[in-house]
Design goal:
Layout lengths: L2 E3 H11 L5 E3 L6 H7 L6 E3 L3 H15 L3 E5 L3 H15 L4 E5 L10 H5 L6 E2 L7 H13 L5 E5 L2 H5 L1 E3 L15 H13 L3 E5 L7 H11 L2 E4 L24 H10 L2 E5 L20 E5 L2 H7 L3 E4 L2 H11 L12 H12 L1 H5 L3 E2 L7 H11 L5 E4 L3 H9 L8 E2 L10 H11 L5 E6 H7 L2 H7 L4 E7 L4 H11 L12 H8 L2 E4 L4 H10 L3 E9 L2 H24 L1
Helix pairs in contact: 1-2, 1-6, 3-4, 3-17, 8-12, 9-12, 10-13, 15-16, 15-22
């Protein structure tokens, strides 16, 4: 049997699994792996930091459904990647992290700290176990509830001669679930007159099946943030709502009105349940997910461990042909109206965006929607812009809205968009971030420029960490530690070799031109306070002055 270095065997295994590229920052403990990658078809992308590299891997995984790859040295490199691994764990994103062996004399092993953020740490005990370790990590990252897996690759094993890998790559097959439980679920679904499908990220690969089921049943469809687009939000059965902090009462009214709630691929993390405020009657709830842990969190009366696509296909085969009317009369229209109205209070606190027709976020995101193809990808950071986008941007296809949903990491959008574009180079990709997020991750623009990536980066420029500023104004009438110093974005674009545009009068034209352009483009959007926000800040100033005057007189 032919032999090769362990490092080459690792790369050959990654090739057979259809994975790549590896996102990394070079370091001593992974130089053997990097040398093998030099001649591998896996590919290598060097980021400006391991945090950026890991977020790129998340973006690649979100668009492709395959595990993203990260390589990092076992000390500061792995430590720098930990927030992204936590994001992947919270958001159920498959990632495989390749790292070296920790120094036995070091006082602290970052790999042990990483155990809190990954599904497992795999440590081969001999060089000829390297291939099995990589295959195990790949399968574990995808199976059950997807997530990150860490593999330690000791340098001595990477240097050693090992047998050439011969087994073809395999991905875990989707299980249908226990037959008697599936039959019971199908019977309940067939009898339901006002069913509600609540759809999460676990259904992203089964969009066609979910749509057929919704139409066959006349079912209302709600999604989690990560599940948005599984049913296009322009569809007559979609009741799109994603306004952070709003709508729990209205969603619970919809749930109570349904005679069956079918949860499909929902992880039941905080963001997907409006901060765990949603109330499901176990006797009327069926939950299907590949992860037993997700089923435990959901608390449904009937729980089925199954791949969503396989389960829905089985149920469809058991249902009569033809589409039902579903919900009675104008029930769905009334619920849709209530859900839309639930976000009305939030709109009062929204800022003004320069260049959109009416200066409102709704106008801007309608323009962005028209500028992007239906399968175009929008990656968001953490901050006020994310809340505005989630409230107003309509999602038309699965795996096209990337949000750091449950860990809410700043610095996510730009590297995630880079990873997404590399995984799907023929699709339009837009990263949307605030000036605070730009300060945190903006130098990944250099990575995008070096790799020749055609990417539109929209920056909301307001000079604040504005989400926290608004919270402070609403609660205290004053602010602290939320002012930022934004760079000259035109000069920044020039410095990194990107094109530049500023939205001043016609947002749709600027956005459409940027999305269609070759290469990297920065688009600046000036964000300003509305008259209501200015009054809120002024009232706070007057109250503070009154308190000072009262205190002075009392003294």
């Amino acid at each position: 049997m032919a032999a090769m270095r362990g490092s080459r065997a690792v790369c050959t295994t990654l090739e057979s699994l259809g994975l790549g590229p590896v996102f990394c920052l070079p370091g001593t403990e992974i130089v053997e792996l990097l040398d093998a990658l030099r001649e591998s078809s896996v590919g290598t992308v060097v980021a400006t930091s391991e945090l950026g590299a890991a977020f790129m891997a998340l973006g690649s995984a979100r668009v492709s459904g395959r595990p993203g790859l990260v390589a990092a040295i076992p000390g500061p490199g792995l430590a720098f990647a930990l927030p992204a691994l936590a994001e992947a764990r919270f958001d159920s994103v498959p990632v495989v992290v390749l790292t070296g062996e920790a120094d036995a004399a070091a006082p602290f092993d970052v790999g042990e700290a990483a155990r809190a953020f990954v599904k497992d740490v795999i440590e081969p005990t001999a060089a000829d176990a390297l291939v099995a370790a990589v295959r195990q990590a790949h399968e574990l990252a995808l199976s059950g509830e997807p997530g990150p897996v860490l593999v330690r690759l000791p340098r001595a094993m990477l240097r050693a001669l090992v047998p050439a890998p011969s087994e073809e790559g395999r991905e875990p097959r989707g299980a249908v679930g226990a037959a008697e439980l599936v039959d019971e679920a199908a019977e309940r679904i067939a009898k339901a007159m006002q069913p509600l499908l609540y759809v999460g990220q676990g259904a992203a690969g089964a969009a066609r099946e979910v749509r057929l089921l919704a139409e066959r049943l006349g079912a209302a469809v709600l999604t989690t943030t990560s599940g948005r687009g599984v049913l296009p939000e322009t569809h007559r059965l979609s009741l799109a709502l994603d306004s952070p902090g709003h709508g729990a009462k209205e969603v619970n009214a919809l749930i109570a009105d349904a005679d069956l709630v079918l949860l499909l691929g929902c992880g039941f993390n905080p963001n997907g349940t409006l901060g765990r405020q949603l109330e499901f009657d176990p006797s009327r709830t069926v939950h299907v997910d590949a992860s037993p842990a997700a089923l435990e969190r959901g608390g449904a009366g009937l729980r089925i461990v199954a791949d969503v696509g396989s389960f829905v296909s089985t149920v469809l085969a058991a249902l009569p042909e033809g589409e039902r009317e579903g919900w009675r009369g104008d029930a769905l229209a009334r619920h849709r109206k209530r859900l839309l109205a639930s976000a009305g209070g939030a709109r009062r606190t929204e800022p003004s965006l320069g260049g959109s027709a009416g200066g409102t976020p709704a106008d801007f995101f309608a323009a962005l929607r028209r500028a992007l193809p239906d399968d175009g990808i929008l990656a968001l950071d953490s901050g006020l812009h994310q809340q505005l986008a989630r409230r107003h941007f309509r999602v038309l296809a699965p795996r096209t809205l990337f949000v750091p949903a449950d860990f809410q990491s700043m610095g996510y959008a730009l590297p995630a968009a880079i990873g997404a574009k590399l995984a799907s180079p023929d699709r339009a990709v837009v990263a949307l971030l605030g000036d605070g997020g730009l300060a945190m991750s903006g130098l990944e623009l250099l990575t995008a420029a070096r790799e020749g990536i055609a990417l539109t980066v929209v920056v909301f420029n307001d000079g604040y960490l504005n989400l926290i500023r608004l919270q402070q104004l609403l609660r205290f009438g004053r602010t602290h530690a939320v002012t930022t110093r934004s760079p000259d974005i035109r000069a920044l674009a020039s410095a990194v070799g990107a094109g530049y545009a500023k939205v001043t009068d016609d947002a749709e034209r600027v956005l459409a031109e940027s999305v269609a352009a070759d290469g990297l483009r920065l688009v600046e959007v000036v964000v300003e306070d509305t008259q209501w926000l200015r009054r809120l800040a002024a009232v706070g100033t007057l109250r503070r002055a009154a308190r000072r005057a009262s205190s002075s007189l009392g003294g």
